[in-house]
Amino acid sequence: MSDFEERELGELRVRIDRTLCVGFGDCITEAPAAFVLDDQGVATFLVLETTPREQLLRACEACPVDAITVWNAAGAQIVPAACEQVP
Questions:
Q1: Residues 6 or more apart from 64 whose CB is under 8 A from it?
Q2: Domain enclosing residue 53, as ranges
Q3: Is 42 inside a domain boundary?
């Protein structure tokens, strides 16, 4: 299996980095229809199409190790959010 698993949902592109995922399951808590842990204890996709967009984004943001990345249609990364620099 690849180190990355990627799916598109409408204008969003969602990627799980399997090398970063440590199986906390926070994404599953937020969106149990979208994610599941596989037999290696790593997050994988279920059915993204039935998950409301905001719930999906919350689930991706919930990952404590930033193993899930989301880009919008313009190719801008929206999850994890870019850190703002304080002057």
A1: 24, 26
A2: 4-79
A3: yes
